[in-house]
Write a structure and sequence with these properties.
The complex is a heterodimer of chains A (263) and B (248). In chain A, 43% of the residues lie in helices and 24% in strands. Chain A is built from 11 helices and 10 strands. The longest helix of chain A has 22 residues, at 241-262. The chains are: A alpha/beta (263), B alpha/beta (248).
Chain lengths: 263, 248
């Protein structure tokens, strides 16, 4: 019986059940069941418009699901406002970056540090200290005084990540943080994400860059027209004919396979 | 067959000729002495790291940024001093990075924005029919606000808007940005299709492998300068390019 415990499925950090979201007549999500296990990197792929971002919006309180339930650490968060969800230890980035453009980088990140799981206990001074640490960790320190409005795209993507990380999340949702990066920059971003995961943060990563998603994910979930059409380890998922047809296409399926073999 | 033979033996016309171009923002110079040319009917790729000046080059060609020095000729005309609308009238059109649609306007109205400067008002409908034929997804979304579109559909709408101007040279900034692999594949096929129908293409694309596979030639930009200009197939084989831009 003791031994069975180690084989037991990993602890579920977030549990989504039958999550449905309708916008007028359009069902963006249709009864999605999804578990995020503590400590994993869960990759999420699917065509544009499949509902990936909507799913993150529903979990982070930006959108209310039309029906279904979401439990985080066993507690129902389905109808909680975003700030309260943030306090519980959940953070996200935005695909279309949302910096406070007229503030500099350090203040943007310090604001993240004042919300989120660690925020309540912090003074502004302590929030700035936390922000400094995050900037150091993500290699953004040389930009600390720059206005967010003046940053290049890769730096804006990194700032987006820094703001979320400063919230000290247990579970972090990354929505296309690698879009627009070239292959060399993607390589660096992958290392950064793996380091965040090793430091104890569970990750839900939406990404179209196959090299990255195949390289870092423990498991992959595929959404299509608001439904989960596949779930499994990366090797299984890219062999799935439905996934190739709906999402990858033959050309990129080949490439994804070679990315996996290099891993 | 005969047409092809004739085309390949006739001298290729230079459509866009950029000589020693410099430009930048405020005090900050971004482009130094950039010279490129794009020939009629080509697909030419611009590759380089983020911050190398690719977008700045496209924006200078569109005159969203003033050139500081050098010259821009298009179809033999000196357009160095031309304004943005004159560039569009001449046939130089950009599908900008991040799509830049009007989110509150319908797909239809966004597309029609592309025809804003056209004199041949009667032919606009036939261009629109053509755009909807090659981008059928936009037909399904025709009356919806562009802000409701998915990323891939927005990119289609931005390209469609560009096509509505009847461009002779379509500059596309970051074609695959944020798009699903299959969509990228379809967009690439679309670009080939558009190109075959007579539109010359200048492509900025982070997926260098893809960018070079479809292009005839490529220019490599580094810190605002052209450091290499070759046939795309040669760039793909170049060990330095493979290491720096393909991560191989």
């Amino acid at each position: 019986m003791e031994a069975a415990a180690s084989n037991a499925p990993a602890e579920v950090l977030l549990q989504a059940r039958a999550v449905t979201k309708r916008f007028g007549g359009v069902a963006a999500l249709q009864g999605v069941d999804l578990d995020i296990r503590k400590g994993e990197i869960l990759g999420v792929i699917g065509p544009n418009g499949a509902g990936k971002t909507t799913f993150v919006n529903c979990i982070s309180g930006l959108d209310r699901p039309t029906s279904g339930t979401i439990l985080f650490k066993g507690r129902e968060i389905t109808k909680m406002p975003s700030y309260a969800i943030g306090r519980l230890g959940l953070a996200r980035t935005f695909q279309v970056v949302k910096p406070l453009r007229q503030l500099n980088v350090i203040d943007n990140v310090a604001i993240g540090a004042m919300f989120g799981a660690g925020g309540k206990r912090r003074t502004t001074g302590q929030a700035r200290e936390r922000a400094e640490q995050v900037l150091e960790q993500l290699g953004l320190k040389h930009r600390r005084e720059h206005l967010a409005a003046d940053l290049t795209l890769p730096d804006l993507k990194r700032l987006e990540l820094a703001k979320a990380l400063a919230m000290d999340p247990e579970l972090l949702f990354l929505d296309e943080v690698m879009a627009g990066l070239n292959p060399t920059e993607v390589e660096r971003a992958m290392q950064m994400i793996e380091a965040i995961n090793r430091a104890g943060v569970t990750l839900f990563v939406i990404e179209h860059v196959m090299k990255a998603i195949m390289g870092i994910s423990d498991r992959i979930v595929v959404l299509h027209f608001g439904k989960k059409i596949a779930e499994g380890d990366p090797g299984q998922v890219i062999e799935n004919p439905q996934v190739i047809e709906a999402y990858l296409g033959e050309r990129f399926a080949k490439r994804a396979k070679s990315a996996l073999h290099k891993k | 067959m005969t047409a092809e033979v004739a085309a390949s033996s006739s001298p290729v016309k230079t459509l866009l000729e950029v000589r020693n171009l410099s430009s930048g923002y405020g005090e900050q110079q971004v482009l130094w002495d950039v010279s490129i040319e794009v020939r009629q009917g080509e697909i030419v790729s611009l590759i380089g790291a983020n911050g190398a000046g690719k977008t700045t080059l496209l924006c200078t060609l569109s005159k969203l940024i003033e050139p500081w020095g050098g010259s821009i000729h298009f179809d033999g005309r000196d357009l160095t001093q031309a304004s943005s609308d004159q560039m569009v009238r001449a046939g130089v059109v950009q599908a900008p990075q991040g799509r830049r649609l009007f989110p509150g306007l319908s797909v239809k109205d966004n597309l029609l924005q592309g025809a804003y400067l056209r004199q041949d008002k009667r032919d606009i409908q036939s261009t629109l029919d053509w755009v909807l034929e090659i981008l059928p997804r936009l037909r399904e979304r025709f009356n919806q606000p562009a802000g409701f579109l998915s990323g891939g559909e927005q990119q289609m709408c931005a390209i469609g808007r560009g096509l509505m101007s009847k461009p002779r040279l379509l500059a596309i900034d970051e074609l695959s940005l944020g798009l699903a692999p299959l969509v990228v594949d379809n967009l690439l096929k679309l670009i080939i299709d558009i190109n075959k129908q007579g539109v010359t293409v200048l492509l900025v694309e982070q997926d260098v492998e893809v960018a070079l596979e479809y292009a005839s030639r490529g220019y490599v930009l580094e810190t605002g300068r052209v450091v290499q200009a070759s046939k795309a197939s040669e760039l793909l084989q170049d060990p330095r390019i493979r290491q720096a831009y393909l991560g191989l």
